[in-house]
């Protein structure tokens, strides 16, 4: 029985090692191709014979690194053959969607979950959309700014034209001797405006019947102003009057009660007393002075 791992090899008697020369073959043109073992990344249908190849079936494939790149990630292409008709099927990696894309020789089967995933907006698409919206918004903002600047410039140009026209008209009037007429018209317009203001003020201070409403200090102010204009200062007038001070009643504080005065009875209402005293009434003294116990 032969050994599994050969340690010694057979050399024929006529073996000459000097005749062995190292030879270099032609360099491979195009991308580097490597034979690898892989499984089908998705279920597919062969377009040549209609054979269905399920996901996960193993193949001896050729791996080719292409020049395409997604940012810094290289795109890799794989070549396999159909299990029924041996037609060549090609698919490559899709780093953008983290998936594989079928190129030729087969058609990928419908996968509803994949369609929903593709319908979602990726992060890159979101960034691109935001950048596009920002650019459009900036364009609209610039357009609005330019429109506003153009409108402002037109207003300034109109104002300058009006000023130039007025200056030219005044210059022509001065040359023709009509400058005095223009000044006179302006003075008359100013006087008319002042008269209208005075009339409006006079109407504002008139009452309902047409009499003039005077304030409390108008007379005093008039007299004072007369003295002021005559050169003599009028004496100061005091408008304050001293009011009598009300005395405070302190009887209520000391607890003294004041008897209420009884109103006098009219003579017609007096009733004659039936008992008439013959003795004369003696008025008692209000205060006894020098009173002794032995005396009556």
Give a quick summary of the entry.
This protein has 296 residues and is of the alpha+beta class. It has helices at residues 112-119, 123-176, 179-204, 218-230, 251-254, and strands at residues 33-39, 44-46, 52-53, 58-70, 73-81, 88-94, 99-104, 106-108. The protein contains five helices and eight strands, in the order ββββββββααααα.
Structure description:
The chain is of the alpha+beta class and 296 residues long. It has a domain at 29-111. The chain is built from 5 helices and 8 strands. The chain has helices at residues 112-119, 123-176, 179-204, 218-230, 251-254, and strands at residues 33-39, 44-46, 52-53, 58-70, 73-81, 88-94, 99-104, 106-108. The strands form 2 sheets. A 5-stranded antiparallel β-sheet has the order 1-4-5-6-7, with no helix packed on it. A 3-stranded antiparallel β-sheet has the order 3-2-8, with no helix packed on it. The longest helix is centred in the middle third of the chain and has 54 residues, at 123-176. The model is unreliable at 269-279 and 285-291 (pLDDT under 50).
Q: What order do the SSEs take from the amino end to the carboxyl end, as H and E?
A: EEEEEEEEHHHHH
- Count up the helices: 5
Beta strand %: 15-25%
Helicity level: 25-40%
- Largest sheet: spatial strand order: 1-4-5-6-7
């Amino acid at each position: 029985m032969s050994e599994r791992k050969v340690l010694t090899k057979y050399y024929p008697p006529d073996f000459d090692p000097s005749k062995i020369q190292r030879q270099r073959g032609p360099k491979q043109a195009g991308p580097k191709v490597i034979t690898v073992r892989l499984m089908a990344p998705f279920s597919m249908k062969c377009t040549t014979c209609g054979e269905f190849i399920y996901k996960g079936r193993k193949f001896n494939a050729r791996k080719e690194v292409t020049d395409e790149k997604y940012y810094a990630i290289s795109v890799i292409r794989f070549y396999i053959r159909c299990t029924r008709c041996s037609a060549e099927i090609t698919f490559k990696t899709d780093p953008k969607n983290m998936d594989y894309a079928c190129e030729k020789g087969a058609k990928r089967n419908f996968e509803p979950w994949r369609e929903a995933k593709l319908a979602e907006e990726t992060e890159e698409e979101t960034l691109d959309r935001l950048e596009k919206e920002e650019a459009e918004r900036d364009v609209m903002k610039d357009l609005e700014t330019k429109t506003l600047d153009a409108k402002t410039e037109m207003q300034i140009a109109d104002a300058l034209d009006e000023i130039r026209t007025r200056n030219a008209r005044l210059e022509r009037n001065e040359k023709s001797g009509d400058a005095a007429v223009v000044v006179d018209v302006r003075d008359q317009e100013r006087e008319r405006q002042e008269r209208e203001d005075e009339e409006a003020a006079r109407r504002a201070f008139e009452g309902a019947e047409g009499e003039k409403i005077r304030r409390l200090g108008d007379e005093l102010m008039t007299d004072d102003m007369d003295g002021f204009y005559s050169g003599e200062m009028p004496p100061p007038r005091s408008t304050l009057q001293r009011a009598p001070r009300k005395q405070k009643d302190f009887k209520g504080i000391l607890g003294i009660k004041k008897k209420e005065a009884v109103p006098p009875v009219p003579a017609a209402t007096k009733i004659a007393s039936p008992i008439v005293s013959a003795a004369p009434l003696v008025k008692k003294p209000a205060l006894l002075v020098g009173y002794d116990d032995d005396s009556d």
